[in-house]
């Protein structure tokens, strides 16, 4: 048996469940690893996934569709589909498990690859070191959990330094963390080591405990009034609950 086949056999089994109007993705356990509202397949169903779009608060909204969004970890394809279908932005997803890609295409309405959408089957830690990606990403979403969903799979200062190298000068990274987990402070320290503490923003945890942290390639401190105006524009254009985000979103180093 080849090493590649051994690696594939170690990956968890991917399954799908329907709960009324919502479809869920599972990786070998009852843990929900992604969700989709069946009659709105390109909307963002989960609150923390909506918050992964917080980079829009710092973006030039008139230029969004000309940028490049990258997702590390495909999940149920929610972020990739939203970026591709709603934002009309060039989107790249890096996913290790070919089963996840197959299930997303069959059950979660993930469109086929095309000029502005591609899924790369690869180990994210290695793929992001590919020189072709450096400095090209305006919005990087990191949501890398194993089937036990206990802690991020990739979470070191070196990994976050590689993520920072992907970003354009005005680019942002958003990361899904479990805010009540013991690993949270360690994750924050790793990000601060790579980006600088003045580059970090964080949401309060969702009811489920997910905390989205945002890191800017180039730190900025827009005034609250400017963020509020931007949030209103985002909500009007893409129907994200951005105006209420500002009550739960602030710089880590205030």
From TrEMBL:
Record organism: Acidovorax kalamii
Gene3D superfamilies to which the protein is assigned, alphabetical: Vaccinia Virus protein VP39 (3.40.50.150)
Superkingdom of origin: Bacteria
Keyword 4Fe-4S applies: no
Stated name of the protein: Spermidine synthase
The entry's keywords: Polyamine biosynthesis
This protein's record includes keyword Mitochondrion: no
A single GO BP: polyamine biosynthetic process
């Amino acid at each position: 048996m080849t090493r590649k086949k051994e690696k594939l056999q170690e990956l968890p089994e991917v399954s799908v469940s329907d709960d009324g109007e919502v479809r869920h993705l599972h990786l070998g356990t009852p843990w929900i690893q992604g969700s989709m509202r069946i009659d709105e397949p390109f909307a963002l169903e989960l609150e923390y996934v909506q918050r992964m779009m917080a980079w829009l608060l710092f973006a030039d909204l008139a230029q969004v569709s000309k940028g490049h969004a990258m997702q590390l970890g495909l999940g149920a394809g929610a972020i990739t589909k939203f970026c591709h279908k709603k934002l009309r932005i060039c989107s790249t997803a890096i996913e290790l498990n070919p089963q996840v890609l197959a299930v997303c295409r069959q059950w979660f309405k993930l469109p086929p690859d095309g000029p502005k959408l591609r899924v790369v089957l690869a180990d994210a830690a290695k793929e992001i070191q590919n020189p072709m990606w450096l400095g090209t990403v305006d919005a990087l979403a990191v949501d890398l959990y194993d089937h036990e969903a206990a802690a991020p799979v990739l979470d070191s200062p070196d990994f976050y330094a590689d993520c920072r190298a992907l970003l354009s000068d005005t680019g942002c990274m958003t990361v899904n963390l479990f805010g009540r987990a013991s690993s949270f402070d360690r994750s924050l320290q790793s990000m601060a080591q790579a980006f600088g503490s003045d580059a970090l923003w964080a949401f309060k945890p969702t009811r489920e405990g997910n905390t989205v942290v945002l890191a800017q390639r180039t730190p900025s401190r827009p005034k609250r009034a400017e963020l509020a105006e931007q949030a209103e524009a985002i909500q009007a254009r893409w129907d994200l609950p951005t105006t209420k985000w500002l009550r739960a979103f602030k710089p880590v180093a205030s």
